[in-house]
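quick q for whoever's on today - can somebody do inverse folding on this one?? i tried earlier but teh output was garbage lol. tokens:
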């Protein structure tokens, strides 16, 4: 059998200019569902294959008892059409359908951030107006406003972007999200993650959970379990400035309000409120007994555990001391998401 890298069964929406989006109701990665993979590989004429009634019956047979959930999708007619999207390898993105499949895989927790090739994503995805009527081409918004108002209704455009909000497509189990418009499709939210109203999580980034996110997780950034990203805190991503270094945050870390980092942190690290650490920040390093070792650039501390970054109240200099306090989340906030 020609094993697939990943596959999905979903509904494709299109207009006269081409594909608008794809919503996937069923996803699978290599080797997870051999019977389904075999059916899809045998029928695969291209990356995107329309699901005919006969093809739909083959998919139902491969899925067995689980097929009942997909039956309405496989029999759909109208503005949305059922499709199978299949990838034989993790290649750069060349199709809208591939982009949506890979973004779904991350948000469905089947793939973690930074584990797939997302090159080409922005080049293939169109900028759309995401509204209560679904995705619209920006040039079609005035006519849609007119149609709705003539019917006594209002068109609500929530954002104009290439990537839609996560919760328009799926809701991960065991999470709470204060403002769903701030979580993009392709964000990874692990079980027990709470994202408060000012929290933001980009695509191909996320929190492994459980954890508290009140700040911003930029593209490519992964925050470990039991960590807390304080209000308006931020972690430097890779989209701006052409950077390639991916910053990660370990387990049981705390980044205080209005603080941030451009270097990766190991486990049990804390950055005090209002302090932003970049790779070139001069840092005075101290032993566990309080003895000063010397001064280094912050990049020399990348990935180390048990670091406490503070600013000296008298000199204003940044210091790295041994973090003696364990970050403990309020379990009541995350255990019952």
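ok took a stab at it. sequence:
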């Amino acid at each position: 059998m020609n094993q697939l890298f990943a596959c999905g069964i979903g509904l494709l929406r299109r207009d006269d200019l081409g594909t608008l989006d794809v919503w996937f109701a069923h996803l699978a990665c290599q080797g997870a569902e051999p019977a389904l993979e075999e059916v899809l590989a045998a029928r695969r004429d291209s990356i995107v294959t329309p699901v005919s009634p006969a093809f739909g019956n083959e998919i139902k047979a491969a899925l067995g008892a689980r097929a009942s959930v997909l039956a309405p999708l496989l029999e759909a007619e109208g503005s949305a059409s059922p499709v199978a999207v299949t990838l034989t390898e993790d290649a750069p993105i060349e199709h809208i359908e591939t982009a949506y499949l890979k973004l779904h895989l991350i948000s469905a927790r089947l793939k973690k951030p930074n584990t797939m090739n997302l090159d080409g994503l922005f080049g293939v995805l169109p900028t759309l107006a995401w509204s209560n009527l679904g995705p619209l081409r920006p040039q079609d918004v005035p006519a849609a406003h007119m149609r709705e108002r003539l019917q006594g209704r209002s068109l609500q455009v929530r954002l104009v972007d290439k990537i839609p909000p996560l919760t328009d497509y799926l809701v991960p189990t065991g999470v709470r999200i204060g403002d769903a418009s701030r979580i993009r499709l392709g964000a990874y939210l692990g079980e027990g993650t709470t994202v408060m109203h000012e929290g933001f999580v980009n695509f191909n980034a996320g929190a492994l959970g459980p954890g508290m996110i009140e700040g911003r997780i930029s593209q490519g950034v992964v925050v470990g379990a039991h960590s807390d990203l304080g209000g308006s805190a931020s972690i430097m991503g890779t989209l701006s400035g052409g950077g390639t270094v991916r910053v990660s945050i370990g387990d049981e870390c705390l980044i205080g309000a209005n603080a941030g980092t451009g270097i990766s942190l190991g486990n049990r690290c804390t950055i005090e409120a209002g302090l932003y650490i970049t790779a070139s920040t001069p840092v005075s390093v101290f032993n566990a007994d309080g003895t000063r070792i010397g001064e280094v650039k912050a990049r020399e501390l990348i990935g180390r555990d048990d670091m406490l970054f503070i600013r000296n109240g008298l000199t204003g200099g940044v210091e790295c001391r041994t973090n003696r306090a364990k970050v403990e989340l309020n379990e009541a906030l995350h255990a019952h998401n």
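fwiw The radius of gyration is 23 Å. also Helices lie at 34-43, 53-63, 67-74, 96-107, 121-124, 141-150, 331-334. so keep that in mind when u check it
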